[in-house]
Specification:
The chain is α+β, with helices and mostly antiparallel strands. It is 36% helix and 25% strand. It is built from 6 helices and 6 strands. Strands 1, 2, 3, 4, 5 and 6 form a 6-stranded antiparallel beta sheet that branches.
Length: 155
């Protein structure tokens, strides 16, 4: 997606959890604990992947995309399909997306990544977004709104 920014990848954390499981320091029931709500979201809103579950290795993982943001109001915290995200990105200023992988066979679930989407990523006209203009010699007054948006996104 064109407006995707501030991407956080959790693959190292996933590897650490799997390493702890294989070493016997963590039990299977501690990592395979998907809630019924998460499993339903995976069934009805999830995107199937070609990746096998690292625990049971019998089923493919499903990615569920949860959205959060001030403009979403009552829709915040809902699972959305991957096809809905670009439409929301063009209509909303900014919202955060959390991608969770789920195995419906053994209830494995783990946060895969998080990122921001929205029209705010389109301002500035460059690949780097609005922050690039501020670094390139913008004034302090121009830097204040960008800093405020970053702080709001981190909350």
């Amino acid at each position: 997606m064109r407006t995707q920014r501030q991407v956080v990848d959790y693959s190292l954390q996933k590897r650490a959890v799997l390493r702890e499981l294989l070493a016997g320091r963590v039990g299977t029931y501690d990592v395979c604990d998907a809630s019924p709500y998460l499993k339903n979201a995976a069934r009805f809103h999830g995107e199937p992947t070609d990746e096998r579950c690292p625990i049971c290795r019998s089923e493919n993982l499903i990615h569920v995309h949860y959205i959060y943001g001030d403009e979403l109001k009552q829709s915040a915290g809902q699972a959305r399909t991957l096809a809905e995200l670009p439409v929301l990105a063009m209509t909303l200023r900014e919202f955060q997306v959390f991608v969770v992988e789920v195995c419906l066979g053994c209830d494995w679930n783990h946060l895969v990544e998080q990122f921001l989407l929205g029209r705010d990523g389109l301002t500035g006209g460059t690949e780097g977004g609005p922050d690039q203009d501020v670094v390139g010699g913008g004034t302090a007054a121009a830097a204040a709104p960008a800093t405020r948006r970053r702080r709001e996104a981190q909350r």
